[in-house]
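Look over both lines before class:
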Amino acid sequence: MKKALLFFVLCCFAAGCATTDDPRQGGLFGYLQHGTDGYQERIDRRQTEVTAAESGAEHGFKENERLRLQLDERRTELEAQRTSLDTLRAELADLEKSTRSTTNASSESAAALDELERELNSMQTNIQVLENDTSLQIRERRRRIIELQKELRLLRERASLLTTL
């Protein structure tokens, strides 16, 4: 019975000896497992982890800077597109004003002026839709603005021809 109790106590003490890679906490079994090189191995492993974390942080900072520059570019482009839309809107208003001021028109030119006015209203609607549509990519928005500018030039030429008649 004494032997069984002694064996049980020894097992409890042996179980109490932790086996970690930290030689300061490993007790007898940790020292036997890692020896005197365990502390240096632990330092080397931690240094590798620190180096990897620093490299990851540096990469994160570079990525953040790249994204910040990209955001600035897109904001500049968006502001330029808004300016273009404002210019289109102003030119469209001038064109509508000039077509409305034409009162001495024949029935043919009056019908053509009415058609032109419908196209101008349609174009104004397109400008508003384009301005409010936030789902469009920058390139697609730029393409649509160029299309609207071309359409406005054509409408301006037609209005000029109609008002000179």
In short: The chain has one domain: 35-164. The chain has a mean pLDDT of 77. The chain is about 85% helix and 0% strand. The radius of gyration is 39 Å.
